[in-house]
Amino acid sequence: MTTRPPRIDNLQYCNVSPKTFEQIRAGGLDAVHVTIAYHESFREMVLRLEEWNRHFERHPDLIFKGTTAEDVTRAQESGRTAVFFGFQNPSPIEDDIGLIEICHQLGVRFMQLTYNNQSLLATGCYEEEDTGLTRFGKQAVAEMNRVGLVVDMSHSAERSTLEAIDHSARPIAITHANPDWWHPARRNKSDAVLKALTARGGMLGFSLYPHHLAGGTGCTLESFCQMVAEAADRYGAENLGIGTDLCQDQPDSVVEWMRVGRWSKVIDYGEGSADNAGFPPMPGWFTDNRDWDNLDAGLRATGLSDAEVDGIMGGNWLRFYAENFGPLTGDAA
């Protein structure tokens, strides 16, 4: 039985290959939450599940499908990585609330209520007007709570995010973003949101995507880790984790799919610029999954305790998985 603290990345969207899986193992990751849908329909999402089934079949010595917190422990004990599925947009449930339970039964454990746009459920962070949760959104949150599909508001606008935190009977997650008091990117979250999130037991996963970092690609390890330490002082270290948003080996054409999908004829530059619409280079201290030791060492150098760092590196996500991946029980059910 392993006693080593878990190491979890709660958001990646890599163009996976045997190289990726080997690097994940080299970095000591016990679990990874991967994006399997941006703008896909339900049927298209199922095709992505088929692709992942082939990965699991071909690389059983490196990865396996994860659906419960116990799978993280199983990964530690077997020297493999548990892969958890999530959506960055609610498009796979289309306009059918019954598909929420079906998606959970298929192994999906996180779903954003919006990407950058208005959805049927809530408002994305790039819309001019934020009208909050829709009627469908409120019912969808209740159904997600019931079955154990975690509400993720990483790309959502302020009012929508606050309403999701308040409306949800269970803690929600912001899987990949940073505080806007450190770097005022539109995708980063306000102090008011982060206070509300963590007060209800929700989790923030810190992003390493350069557009979310102070200094972008040039962000230093010290700056990033000092920001994490400040967030621990403000919100409690137990509510913090990592969601790198690593998009390794993806072609720049994927950025267009992420930002445009089918809704626009023109490129929506979103967090990039017209001069740099592709994926920006990662910081030199975190170029791929083999660099997790750098992050671990940087966090410990800030003065955070070993227990706090162990939690941020994965222990807090593991606790969150254990409490939120199953059906709602007790008085709230």
Q: Strand fraction band? A: 5-15%
In the CATH hierarchy, the architecture is: Alpha-Beta Barrel
> How do the SSEs run, as a string of H and E?
EHEHEHEHEHEHEHEHEHHH
Strands, total number: 9
Domain count: 1
Spatial shape = globular
Structure description:
38% of the residues lie in helices and 12% in strands. Strands 1, 2, 3, 4, 5 and 6 form a six-stranded parallel β-sheet that branches. The protein is globular. The mean pLDDT is 93. The chain contains eleven helices and nine strands. It has a single domain (8-325), classed as TIM Barrel (Alpha-Beta Barrel). Helix 8 (221-235) crosses helix 10 (292-300). The chain has helices spanning 18-26, 42-58, 69-78, 98-105, 135-147, 158-167, 191-199, 221-235, 253-260, 292-300, 306-324; strands at residues 8-12, 31-37, 63-65, 81-87, 108-112, 150-152, 173-174, 203-206, 240-242. By secondary structure, the protein is α/β, with parallel strands linked by helices.
Features:
333 residues, 11 helices, TIM Barrel, alpha/beta, globular, 9 strands, single chain, 38% helix, six-stranded parallel sheet
Write the layout of secondary structure elements.
Layout (H helix, E strand, L loop, with lengths): L7 E5 L5 H9 L4 E7 L4 H17 L4 E3 L3 H10 L2 E7 L10 H8 L2 E5 L22 H13 L2 E3 L5 H10 L5 E2 L16 H9 L3 E4 L14 H15 L4 E3 L10 H8 L31 H9 L5 H19 L9
Parallel strand pairs: 1-2, 2-4, 3-4, 4-5, 5-6, 7-8, 8-9
Helix pairs in contact: 8-10
Quick rundown:
With 333 residues, the chain is an alpha/beta fold.
